[in-house]
């Protein structure tokens, strides 16, 4: 029995293209794997604490091997519990819209909170940086424009490269990708694009 965590980062819900493809994948996945658990982390309904002075200081105390103050210790407990919730899965699905060429600030906020030394990553002179999270990933991206490899807009795409650099940094290197773009295409083209991606998502769910 495996556990899959789905992290949703579009606030557009019923209108979101990345979420529609993710739901098609998850429906098919749960039909295929009825005993697996699926947990949803909706970043727009989750109360994420600010990554403020106490939490940052806690991070630096840990990195520098110093004893945290009581306030830092308290702040760190909250961070640990957010990370522990994330770090329980064998498989991860993320739906990721493009916002201003990157991804939404809620996802960045979540990443800033959970990407912590001793939890998500470690560093030693012998091993350098090491990601401590394990599992396979499906990343479902949506963008209004098109950023295909080799196109003149490719260099503007900071969404997929930065998200996947983060995944790799924390140890998640086995990544499947589905890309819904351009979502600003005329409605009939968009419908056929989305249908294709939903089919691809269902196909992927068979063996994920
Ligand atoms: C705040 C905001 C910024 C956006 N910036 C970009 C952008 O830089 N490039 C782009 O191609 N589309 C951009 N879009 C369009 C979205 O990428 C597009 O609507 C996509 O379908 C969003 O994913 P979703 O449908 O899953 O919410 C932006 C949309 C919003 C709301």
Short description:
With 208 residues, the protein is an alpha/beta fold. 41% of the residues lie in helices and 20% in strands. The site of flavin mononucleotide has 16 residues, from helix 1.
List the helices and strands and how they pair.
Elements lengths: L2 E6 L8 H16 L4 E6 L10 H11 L6 H17 L4 E7 L7 H10 L6 E4 L3 E4 L4 E7 L16 H11 L4 E7 L6 H21 L1
Parallel strand pairs: 1-2, 1-3, 3-6, 6-7
Antiparallel strand pairs: 4-5
Bound molecules: flavin mononucleotide.
Question: Could you walk me through the main structural features you see in this protein, from its secondary elements to its overall organization?
Answer:
The protein is an alpha/beta fold and 208 residues long. The protein has one domain (3-207): 3-Layer(aba) Sandwich (Rossmann fold), CATH 3.40.50.360. The protein is 41% helix and 20% strand. The chain has six helices and seven strands, in the order βαβααβαβββαβα. It has helices at residues 17-32, 53-63, 70-86, 105-114, 159-169, 187-207; strands spanning 3-8, 37-42, 91-97, 121-124, 128-131, 136-142, 174-180. The strands form two sheets. Strands 2-1-3-6-7 form a five-stranded parallel sheet, sandwiched between helices. A two-stranded antiparallel ribbon has the order 4-5. α1 (17-32) links the parallel β1 (3-8) and β2 (37-42). The longest helix is centred in the C-terminal third of the chain and has 21 residues, at 187-207. The two termini are 13 Å apart. It binds flavin mononucleotide. Residues 10, 12, 16-19, 97-101, 142-145, 183 line the site of flavin mononucleotide.
């Amino acid at each position: 029995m495996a556990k899959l965590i789905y992290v949703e980062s579009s606030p557009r819900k019923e209108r979101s293209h990345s979420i529609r493809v993710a739901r098609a994948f998850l429906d098919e996945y749960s039909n295929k794997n009825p005993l697996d658990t699926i947990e949803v982390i909706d970043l727009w309904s989750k109360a994420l604490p600010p990554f403020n002075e106490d939490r940052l200081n806690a991070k630096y105390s840990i990195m520098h091997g110093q004893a945290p103050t009581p306030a830092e210790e308290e702040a760190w407990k909250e961070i640990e519990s957010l990370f522990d919730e994330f770090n329980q899965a064998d498989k991860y699905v993320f739906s990721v819209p493009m916002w201003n060429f990157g991804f939404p600030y809620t996802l960045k906020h979540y990443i800033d909170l959970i990407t912590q030394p001793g939890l998500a990553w470690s560093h030693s002179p012998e091993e350098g940086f090491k990601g401590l999270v394990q599992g396979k990933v499906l990343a479902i991206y949506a963008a209004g424009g098109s950023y295909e490899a080799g196109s003149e807009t490719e260099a503007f795409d900071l969404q997929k490269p930065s998200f996947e650099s983060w995944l790799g940094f924390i140890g998640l290197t086995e990544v499947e990708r589905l890309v819904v773009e351009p979502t600003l295409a005329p409605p009939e083209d968009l419908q056929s694009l989305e249908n294709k991606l939903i089919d691809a998502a269902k196909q992927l769910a068979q063996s994920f």
